[in-house]
UniProtKB/TrEMBL annotation:
Belongs to the complex I 51 kDa subunit family. SMART domains: NADH_4Fe-4S (SM00928). GO terms for molecular function: 4 iron, 4 sulfur cluster binding; FMN binding; metal ion binding; NADH dehydrogenase (ubiquinone) activity; oxidoreductase activity. The keyword Kinase does not apply. The keyword Ribonucleoprotein does not apply. Residues 441-486 form the NADH-ubiquinone oxidoreductase 51kDa subunit iron-sulphur binding domain. Keywords: 4Fe-4S, Iron, Iron-sulfur, Metal-binding, Oxidoreductase. It comes from the Bacteria. It holds the Pfam family 2Fe-2S_thioredx. It comes from Desulfobulbus propionicus (strain ATCC 33891 / DSM 2032 / VKM B-1956 / 1pr3). This is NAD(P)-dependent nickel-iron dehydrogenase flavin-containing subunit.
Length: 538
């Protein structure tokens, strides 16, 4: 599709939407139950009143505040309604053009909405994820046309580098540097992969992005393929995400139909096909080399590195791997310039970050904040604080690979470097709030059990070490541990962290190490009386 045709189609769709006096936007994500019933009920009431030409009902992606869902947004007034049921349809339609329906009204000036900065989530909850025309009308795919017709591949990479974008999947590796490495790699065939194997407990960032704006991820992948010279791409997504899979399949078909995928994309020299690969739910397949193995049809176990995927990845060819949120950051960088993203965040952590805010928190849901915002602001302003009058005890970031940050460090700005300094990581964006009623040994044992079960078993330190750590944590949980067990626990964590083959084993001890650092007394409180350990005579 050429620029002029794209603009004409987008303008035509905007005019059709503007023909309605009101729009009901209904969250159609997995987090909002009965949304299909709500949509059907609204359409039924509208039809009964003969208002089909004046009022539209549209399904949209996640609006973020999952704790109060299902959420319905009325436009153009921008009125939010919470905890909507199909039985509310009559009252909602009757309230149009009048004062908001107070029993369901959700103020739009809440800190949850006002303190966020939407970049990746800018269109989430605003467009129908199953309509390519909705995406085009919001400016979608213009960045692809701009990159393919006005920029060289090196210009695209330079723009990504200037933005300061770092990978949003875990370690925070500079995205532009990774792209440049793949672009320079030699080989007749290159691949790119979108890592959508989101497996952290309590995490649903990537799933929500795929369910809400699948075309944004595709657009980022197309731009990346042009930049590095890839001609085939794969989206590796969990089979447990049926709605995301459904919408990705539809998005790929629509992109192919409009020539954003296929031969001579948008009349350029780029040929690109993108396929889905469904993962079976193995956590280790979030590690890029294990993911590659799985895409190749083999058992998903990590490979030794080097060589790195940028040099020898999928089927031994140079391969670019980024996660869902990283690709979704790319179109705005191309369309609006790198300065917009670079102006947000900290010196070393630019832009925004999407988090799944869960646990003992009032406003659980999906949020996007500038890097550098403090944990205190996220928990108490956006999150609304701790329910039940309890005090905050810790914030766990990074999933099973992360650490537990105590309340005394709540004013820490959220960035790759600051979280690492506290013994945790950003990870893909899971953020679990823990209150004073929770014992940290119980939390850590849960995460270690997860890592133990998900270990691929290939290397001994991870296979045996996580099981031994879990055994020791069980002794502490049952108040049967000794001081010797505490020493063993610390030694084992050090061994597993420094000798495991891949990131799963290397980071599995992080929750234990961070709690030993900040909540050591909770381990000591569960130690049974034991004579002092005698040091061996030299």
């Amino acid at each position: 599709m050429q620029r002029e045709e794209l603009i004409r189609r987008a303008d035509a769709h905007r005019r059709s939407l503007n023909g309605f006096t009101h729009h009901f936007l209904v969250c159609a994500g997995l987090g909002c139950p009965r949304n299909e019933e709500i949509i059907a009920a609204l359409r039924s009431v509208i039809a009964e009143r003969g208002l089909q030409e004046q009022i539209s009902v549209r399904k949209v992606g996640c609006m973020g505040l999952c704790a109060l869902g299902p959420i319905v947004l009325v436009q153009p007034e921008e009125i939010f309604y919470q905890a909507v049921t199909p039985e509310d349809a009559e009252d909602l339609v009757a309230s149009l053009g009048k004062a908001p329906l107070q029993r369901l009204f959700l103020p739009s000036d809440l800190p949850f909405f006002k303190r966020q900065h939407k970049n990746v989530l800018a269109l989430s909850g605003r467009i129908d994820p199953e309509s390519v025309d909705d995406y085009l009308a919001a400016g979608g795919y213009l960045a692809v046309v701009q990159a393919l017709t006005e920029m060289r591949p090196s210009d695209v990479i330079r723009r990504v580098q200037e933005s300061g974008l770092r990978g949003r999947g875990g370690a925070g590796y500079p995205t532009g540097l990774k792209w440049a490495t793949v672009a320079k790699a030699t080989g007749e065939k290159k691949y790119l992969i979108c890592n959508a194997d989101e497996g952290d407990p309590g995490a649903f960032m990537d799933r929500s992005i795929l369910e809400s704006t699948p075309h944004a991820v595709l657009e980022g992948m197309i731009i990346a393929a042009y930049a590095v010279g890839a001609t085939s791409g794969y989206i590796y997504v969990r089979a447990e995400y049926p709605l995301a899979v459904k919408r990705l399949k539809l998005a790929i078909r629509e992109a192919e139909r409009l020539n954003f995928l296929g031969h001579a994309v948008c009349g350029s020299s780029l040929d690109l096909d993108i396929q889905l690969r469904l993962g079976a739910g193995a956590f280790v397949c979030g590690e890029e080399t294990a993911l590659i193995q799985s895409v190749e049809g083999k058992r998903g176990i990590p490979r030794p590195r080097p060589p790195y995927p940028a040099e020898q990845g999928l089927w031994g060819r140079p391969t670019l791997i980024n996660n869902v949120e990283t690709y979704a950051n790319v179109p705005p960088i191309i369309a609006h310039g790198p300065e917009k993203l670079a102006a947000l965040g900290t010196e070393q952590s630019k832009g925004t970050k999407v988090f799944a805010l869960t646990g003992k928190i009032r406003n659980s849901g999906l949020i996007e904040v500038p890097m550098g915002m403090s944990l205190r602001e996220i928990v108490f302003d956006i999150g609304g604080g701790i329910p039940g009058g309890h005090a905050l005890k810790a914030v766990q970031t990074g999933g099973p690979s992360g650490g537990c940050i105590p309340a005394e460090h709540l004013d820490t700005p959220v960035s790759f470097e600051s979280l690492r300094a506290l013994g945790s990581i950003m990870g893909s964006g899971g953020m679990i709030v823990i209150d004073e009623t929770t014992n940290m040994v119980d939390i850590v044992k849960y995460f270690m059990e997860f890592s133990m079960d998900e270990s691929c078993g290939q290397c001994t330190p991870c296979r045996v070490g996580t099981a031994q750590i879990h055994h020791l944590l069980t002794l502490f949980q049952q108040s049967r541990a000794t001081l010797l067990d505490l020493a063993k626990l610390e030694a084992l964590c050090d061994l597993v962290k420094n000798t495991s083959l891949c990131g799963l084993g290397q980071s599995a001890p992080n929750p234990v190490l961070s709690t030993l650092r900040y909540f050591r007394q909770e381990y000591l409180d569960r130690i049974v009386a034991h004579p002092p350990i005698q040091e061996e005579e030299q």
